[in-house]
Amino acid sequence: MKKIAIIGGGAAGFFAALSAKEHFPSADVTIYEKSAKVLSKVKVSGGGRCNVTHACFDNKKLITYYPRGANYLRKSFEQFNTRSTIEWFKKRGVELETLSDNCIFPKSNSSQTIIDCFLSEARRLGIKQKLQTPINDIIQLEDDTFELVSTAENFKANAIIYTTGGQPKNNSLQWLTKFNHTLVEPVPSLFTFNMPNESIRTLMGIVVEETTTKVEGTKLEATGPLLITHWGMSGPSILKLSAFGARLLSEKNYDFYVLVNWLHKQKEPETKHILESTIQQHSDKKIGNLNPFGISTRLWHFLLEKSDISIDSKWKELQGKKANKLINTLLNDRYHVSGKTTFKEEFVTAGGIGLSDIDFNTMQSRKVKRLFFAGEVLDVDGVTGGFNFQAAWSTGWIAGKNVLSYRL
Ligand SMILES: Cc1cc2nc3c(=O)[nH]c(=O)nc-3n(C[C@H](O)[C@H](O)[C@H](O)COP(=O)(O)OP(=O)(O)OC[C@H]3O[C@@H](n4cnc5c(N)ncnc54)[C@H](O)[C@@H]3O)c2cc1C
């Protein structure tokens, strides 16, 4: 009987194990998990609700949510995409629901539903689990098998799917360098910006639904809601910048300037026109009392003050340099970022196993036959919204489907 070893009992590991056993029912499939519990990240994911995937059914669009690995994942999504995920869970009796932001959760609103589904499927298919069994090294033997080196005992396998997740350091992957696998230095992705010297923090709690944010001096740009926090800025627009800029911002030691357009994509002529018509129609009204841009009054007052305009001055007084300064503050507002904070809901690691060493049609290593990879251990990561799990499901399913096919 062929032995398939799954290293890591997380999202990708379980999906790979289930796929392997379904495609190769006569194989012996064992999950080796270093901790005492499997699926612990699934448990805490999405605030305990598990955002399993995203209602994006166009693969071309779907890959744009992945700062790293997008072009490789295009191949994976041709085989197993968001629609496949929904069908997979539906077939196994898990009802999912799509929220207004297109994030998809179990209808039960509990990540335990996903865990229960995986555990009962694993039981039904006879997949074994070995807990508290870290695999620290993998040795290729002459008879075309592998030896898995653990702390107390070693194991044998004909094929391996390696799914140990994202790591803050590449130490645990060092065994791969003997096979000439490239390792990409890990850096955090998905974090919020600290602004210890910026008084905008006094406006904590304010959300501006549509903004454009940029990192000064770079091409990094993102759109979406922005949340002002007591330490700086957060929200989808900032998280996207942090994900797409993960490596660059790490090189900058998290010290840079962010530029905010509080009016989404509005440009100077349009803003000028709005200011001019407000001056014409409401010349004697106080600027602080009439805000033509629909942003919150507290933020409007803050931006006026930042532009050296008294909230008690009249609209007719807004001329020349003063108007230009206000336009600049509204469209190109500059803040110093110094440091980052981990985003509590979902943090991932950029970096891991270099992608050019993997055949994404099968998820097999191009360097070692019968060694497959899936999930966050790869240099693949997505923004928030269910994209990271989708990558784990797709790569895990494909690895399982091909694990005993030995195409290279
Ligand atoms: C708080 C939080 C919330 C999140 N919420 C979401 C969400 O709602 N939606 C979403 O899409 N993504 C979310 N993510 C990201 C998502 O959880 C990960 O992308 C996903 O879990 C990656 O799956 P994985 O199987 O590759 O890795 P993991 O789930 O990290 O699993 C890896 C497993 O391998 C084990 N392991 C490691 N080394 C060894 C070894 N040497 N031997 C044996 N076992 C080993 C680990 O103990 C672990 O169990 C969240 C992340 C966090 C931290």
What would you say this structure looks like, in words?
- With 408 residues, the chain is an alpha+beta fold.
- The protein has 2 domains: 3-187 and 346-402, FAD/NAD(P)-binding domain; 191-342, no CATH class.
- It contains 12 helices and 22 strands.
- It has helices at 11-23, 40-48, 59-62, 70-79, 82-91, 111-125, 236-244, 246-251, 268-281, 297-306, 320-331, 387-402; strands at 3-7, 28-32, 53-54, 96-98, 103-106, 128-130, 137-140, 146-149, 154-157, 159-162, 183-189, 191-194, 207-215, 221-228, 232-234, 255-261, 333-338, 340-342, 348-353, 358-359, 364-365, 371-373.
- The strands form 6 sheets. The chain has a 7-stranded antiparallel β-sheet. Strands 6-2-1-10-22 form a 5-stranded parallel β-sheet, with helices on one face. A 3-stranded antiparallel β-sheet has the order 3-5-4.
- Strand 13 (207-215) and strand 14 form a beta hairpin.
- Helix 2 runs antiparallel to helix 6 (111-125).
- Residues 7-13, 32-35, 40-41, 44-46, 50-51, 134-135, 163-165, 172, 345-348, 375-377, 386-389, 392 line the site of flavin-adenine dinucleotide (FAD).
Strand content of the residues, in percent? 15-25%
Work out the oligomeric state of the chains in this entry.
Answer: single chain
Low-confidence stretches are none
So what's the overall shape? elongated
| Strands in their spatial order, largest beta sheet | 17-16-13-14-15-12-18
